[in-house]
Amino acid sequence: MAGRGKLIAVIGDEDTCTGFLLGGIGELNKNRKPNFLVVEKDTSIAEIEETFKSFVTRNDIGIILINQFVAEMIRHAIDGHMESIPAVLEIPSKEHPYDASKDSILRRAKGMFSAEDFR
């Protein structure tokens, strides 16, 4: 990885992953592990959580994009991730709109400021 940037990983539905793969984010590491997981109806929560945990521990990943409806399935694992890198960003999907009240990063950020900080 010397001289190279970090990768973006994606955990999401087929449309989300396809869009990002067409944008050029698809990579395999030296162990031939991809930096994305397509979540389908038959994908187990254990597989999603295992993939998330493997992305968090990979030193070649700097950002993890995850559909918010998928993030809800493994909320405990996402809330337990406290490191700044890789950053975990929850994104909407075609079928599920974004809900800011469920986003773990926004909830943490709200806890850092009071209403008077913005006056």
Can you walk me through this structure?
The protein has 119 residues and is of the alpha/beta class. It has one domain (7-110): Rossmann fold. The chain is 36% helix and 18% strand. It has 5 helices and 4 strands. The chain has helices at 14-22, 45-57, 68-73, 75-80, 104-112; strands spanning 7-12, 36-38, 61-67, 87-91. It has a 4-stranded parallel sheet with strand order 2-1-3-4, with helices on both faces. Helix 1 (14-22) links the parallel strand 1 and strand 2 (36-38). The radius of gyration is 15 Å and the shape is globular. It starts with 6 loop residues before the first strand and ends in a 7-residue tail after the last helix. 23% of the residues are buried. The mean pLDDT is 86.
Characteristic terms for this protein:
globular, four-stranded parallel β-sheet, 119 residues, 4 strands, 5 helices, Rossmann fold, alpha/beta
